[in-house]
Design brief:
- A hairpin with a 3-residue loop joins strand 7 and strand 8 (about 225-230).
- This protein is α+β, with helices and mostly antiparallel strands and about 230 residues long.
- The protein starts with a strand and ends with a strand.
- Helices cover about 45% and strands about 20% of the residues.
- The chain has helices at about 15-45, 50-70, 85-90, 95-100, 120-135, 175-180, 200-210; strands spanning about 1-5, 80-85, 105-110, 115-120, 145-155, 160-170, 215-220, 225-230.
- It has a six-stranded mixed beta sheet with strand order 1-7-8-6-5-3.
- The structure holds adenosine-5'-diphosphate and magnesium ion (MG).
Amino acid sequence: MVIKYKPGCGEDALLKTAALKHDYNNSIQSIISMLELLQQRVNGGIDGGVDDLIEAGHRALDRVGEQARGLAQNGQSRSPPLVHLNRCISGLNSQLASLLGSCIELSMSISEEDLWISADLHRLESAIINLVLNARDAMPNGGKLIIQTGLVQDGKRQCSSYASLRIIDNGCGMAAAILARALDFSYTTKHSQAGRGLGLWSVRDFVSDLQGEIVLRSIVNEGTSAELLLPLQE
Ligand SMILES: Nc1ncnc2c1ncn2[C@@H]1O[C@H](COP(=O)(O)OP(=O)(O)O)[C@@H](O)[C@H]1O
Ligand SMILES: [Mg+2]
């Protein structure tokens, strides 16, 4: 089953602030995961990967700083600069690997095109982290996660060219009734502290601000693909 979301009117400022707090907590969580990995390496006397983790930690700290500024300004963000999608994803590799742990195999299939989009880098990173965390939660016993980018040219859509970003997992998938509500504010099927139902709403809000689209495809017990179509800047 597939559901699509296209932007409508702007989302409420209070909801935006709640989603920003959620993304801020995710950033803190990714810093904690990286510090734990660093600690394991130091304890084991392993030097490999330490520099990457420290660099990724600085990057996550930049995002936390930007999110804290956004919260101080009641969720208002600045006008978005240009971001190179592929470089953004490659730069997140260590953060994502720390969040996923060793039971989930992460692979990237990055297109050769230069995919420039007009987006706030930190919001884009938060959207990717939200989708990756959902994929992780859908694969409690491990699995495979693929991040794919590509160029989509489609005369039937609002823009002629989009950068496509897909996060694909082979986890539990979603039944039709869950998929239909997955993008709603505060909708969650998770009972832990982790599940607040704001992750996909935050992604939807980000995509909506860019006049992009989200396509969720899911099959129970086979997996899920979350695709973001973000207008390309040429
Ligand atoms: N990759 C996925 N696989 C299976 N279910 C998913 C996936 N992504 C989202 N979901 C479902 O959508 C719901 C809403 O997701 P989200 O808004 O991120 O909130 P949360 O993760 O806090 O529950 C989840 O509770 C889950 O049921
Ligand atoms: Mg989530």
